[in-house]
Amino acid sequence: MPANDNPHAYNAASRAAGIGVVANVALVVVKLIGGIYGHSAALVADALHSLTDVVSSTALVWSLRKAGQPADPEHPYGHGKIESITASVIAGLLLAVAGGIAVGAWFRIRHPETLEGPTGLALVVALISIVVKEALFQYKLYVGRRLNSSSLIAEAWHHRSDAFSSLAATLGIGGAIVGGVPWRVLDPIAAFVVALIIAVMAVAIFRRSSLELMDTQLPADTLEKIRQAAAQPGVLHVEKVFTRKSGLNILVDVHLEVDDNMTVLASHRLGHEVEEQVMRAVPQVIQVLVHIEPHHRAEREGRRPMAAKH
User: Fold this and answer.
1) pLDDT at 194
2) Which of 61, 105, 255, 274 could staple 291 via S-S, CB 3.0–4.6 A?
3) Regarding predicted confidence, which is higher, 246 or 253?
């Protein structure tokens, strides 16, 4: 089984997600009050966006705790993939919310006679939301990058999309207040822009999580670090490096060519040395599967077709 996951990393990610839950619950209440009593469709749409943040942050806390569980006989590679699954679910939720907001906004744009002018209360609440959401974005992005957590990074961008949507709502509300009755349509137009922003963010999050679920190779700079770490004395050629991400962790398969006459014991020791060096070079790596091949025979008979890949 793989080495134990880092429980401290998952706890730190869970704390960050938990802070998001508390902040978003407060924002949902404040935005709904401001949107309803401030007569702003854009702010109500923004409140619905924050409500999806509450749901997704709660799901994220659960998934991080589940992903942090150690490997077991049924899940020998750990439970990390649930983090990517959660990110995909968050993306789907965002798309659904974006669709609902867009339909409602489009109806109001086509029927401007139903619109009430937004008030200063809605404008103040929208401005507060921008500040809070941007702060949450910066905090979660920092923690997510430090821990290499795709779902936490996805949640951070969810907050950034909410900040953008609050900005759009602010512009629409402000324009409607300043312009008066002829410009009230700016409020539902802002709500429609909010929906587009949410949809774009959802597609980006889904793409990132899907790549992880498909076991896509890690970036070239990470592969190069692994190659350099694997090139220990006794390794004549690093033939292949395959990587995949599982939650906050990385799993590595590496094929090494050694002298044809190296003993089983010596190659076994070399494999352990390579494993230790790769883990030192890339701390997120929790398992390195080393495959040993004879170097001179590979040169004579030709390497396998996938040898040219990273």
Assistant:
1) 76
2) 255
3) 253
Degrees, nearest 5: CA angle 9-13-15: 115
The number of C-alpha atoms within 13 Å of 18 and in the hemisphere containing its C-beta is 9
Q: What is the DSSP string of 123-168?
A: HHHHHHHHHHHHHHHHHHHHHHHHHT-HHHHHHHHHHHHHHHHHHH
Cα separation, 310 vs 308, in Å, equals: 7
Helix (H, G, I), strand (E, B) or coil at 209: helix
Which of 130, 163, 131, 156 shows the shortest CA–CA distance to 142?
Answer: 156
Q: Residue 259 phi/psi, 5° resolution?
A: -55, 135
308 secondary structure, DSSP code: G
pLDDT tens digits for 253-302?
Answer: 999 999 999 999 999 999 999 999 999 999 888 889 999 989 877 666 66
Query: What is the DSSP secondary-structure string of 27-71?
Result: HHHHHHHHHHHTT-HHHHHHHHHHHHHHHHHHHHHHHHHHHTSPP
pLDDT of residue 288: 93
Residue 117 CB neighbour total at 10 angstroms = 17
Cα–Cα distance for residue pair 233/94, rounded to 1 Å: 51
Cβ atoms of 151 and 90 closer than 8 Å: yes
Burial of 111 (0-12, 13-18, 19+ CB in 10 A): exposed
* H or E stretch at 290: strand 285-294
Give the span between the Cα atoms of 47 and 129, in whole angstroms. 10
Q: Domains, the chain, ranges and CATH?
A: 7-213 (1.20.1510.10), 220-308 (3.30.70.1350)
Q: What is the pLDDT of residues 4-22, one digit of tens each?
A: 455 567 677 778 877 878 8
